[in-house]
Structure formats: structure tokens, C-alpha cells
Amino acid sequence: ETGVTQSPTHLIKTRGQQVTLRCSSQSGHNTVSWYQQALGQGPQFIFQYYREEENGRGNFPPRFSGLQFPNYSSELNVNALELDDSALYLCASSLLIQGENIQYFGAGTRLSVL
Amino acid sequence: AQKITQTQPGMFVQEKEAVTLDCTYDTSDPSYGLFWYKQPSSGEMIFLIYQGSYDQQNATEGRYSLNFQKARKSANLVISASQLGDSAMYFCAILSSNTGKLIFGQGTTLQVKP
Fold it and tell me: How far is B99 from chain A (nearest CA, A)?
């Protein structure tokens, strides 16, 4: 158990729709990162939030956006869904301190876009 | 840019034997962290072991050890006394100290035979 929970576990949407994925971080962790994992691939970094501010972004378009809340929960929002957005979305929380920055992952949300 | 290379798409090991999963990396960061994660079919990314670039000794966590050879830019994972439950996908990752993002390799599928 990592203490990181994601909801929902599975989701089916149609092209053009919007989706919100949720993550509850491990208690005390001030940083949350989101990753997209296509089938058979390693996860790709979407963005990271530190103390409710975006703290880095990968090569994803602006229709991927996020929020982090004071209670360390967070959301990933994707607008105008495309077929290629079908993937496993992973949330990871960590305590950003000097030195180690171990990211602990949730079980993910499997998104299917039809 | 940082990169992780895992050259073994699939590996087999007999139960109770040891196995080494290969990982090489490329980075220009003077300080970085190397990680191994296990991903069973359920999807959750489970943290196994961490090695800091300035750590003098190889990291160990129970049956997991990391064979860190900095000059060769390799960070191989050794699993001793393999168990059936070790069957999963294994990912090597490097942490960018600038962005805080994890960069993953393509993964290695390990199957433990009884």
C-alpha cells in the first residue's frame, strides 16, 4: 500500500468529451506528478504540482491541465479527448526535499476513448 | 536530455534463482537519482529501490539490489531468490533534478517459472 489512491479505476469516454481524474496523495506529501502510460510503453511525464503550483510540464498540449488542493488531493483534466488519449493515467506523490525524491504511485485510471 | 535504455523486452527465471535486469542511462545532470519500479498486471507502479548518483555503496532492499556502475552509466537490478510473485513488468527510471520528473525506460517483462 502506497497511500496514493486514484479514482475512478476505469473510464470510457467518447472523442471530444472532457474528463477529470482524481488522486489522493500520501499524507504529508507536498508534490504530485501525473504520468500517461500507453499500452506496452513506459510512463510519460505530463506535469507536476508543488504546493498547488505547476512545477514542471512534459510534452503535452494545454488541453491537459491540473489542479492540486491544500489537502494534497489533485485532479487531471483533459479536454477535447482524442483516441490517442486512451491510456493508463498514473498519479504519484512525493515529499520534495533535498536529496531523495521518491515518487509513490497509485494504481492508475484506465481511460478508453471511443 | 535524459534517457533510459532497457534492452531486455522479456526475461525468464527459474523460481529461487537470481536474475539481473539491465538498465543503462544517459544524463548531463551532475546529480541524479535512479529508480526501479515493479508493475504487475493490476497496473500499480510499485517502488522497489533507489540509488543516488553520489552514493558510494550499491543500494539494497531485501531481495533487491542495484548494481550501480557510474562510469558505465548502468544501474542493473538484481533480484535474488526469485518468487512466483515477482512476475511483472519492471521499469528503470531516472529523476531529473531540474524538473523533478521521472524518465522511464521501455520496461522488461519478467516471468518466474515454477
Answer: 6
pLDDT digits (tens, 9 = 90+) for B46-94: 999 999 998 889 999 999 999 999 999 999 999 999 999 999 999 999 9
Query: In this complex, do A100 and B103 lie within 8 Å of one another by their Cβ atoms?
Result: no
Using CA atoms, how far apart are residues B1 and B26, in angstroms rounded to an integer? 8
B33 near A CB under 8 A: yes
Q: Distances in Å between the alpha carbon of A30 and those of A63, B93, B94?
A: 24, 21, 20
User: What does each C-alpha distance from B93 to A66, A67, A105, B97 come to in angstroms?
Assistant: 23, 25, 13, 13
3-state secondary structure of A27: coil
Say whether A107 and B44 touch across the interface (CB within 8 A).
yes
For residue range B6-15, list pLDDT tens digits in order. Answer: 999 999 999 9
Taking CB atoms and an 8 Å limit, are A100 and B52 in contact across chains? Answer: yes
pLDDT band for position A98 (50/70/90)? low
Cα B43 from Cα B110, distance rounded (Å): 15
User: Would an 8 Å CB–CB cutoff place B32 in contact with chain A?
Assistant: no
Which residue from B60, B40, B50 is spatially nearest to B93, judged by alpha carbons?
A: B50
Cα–Cα distances (Å) from A69 to A51, A54, A58, A72, A76, in that order, read 8, 12, 21, 5, 12
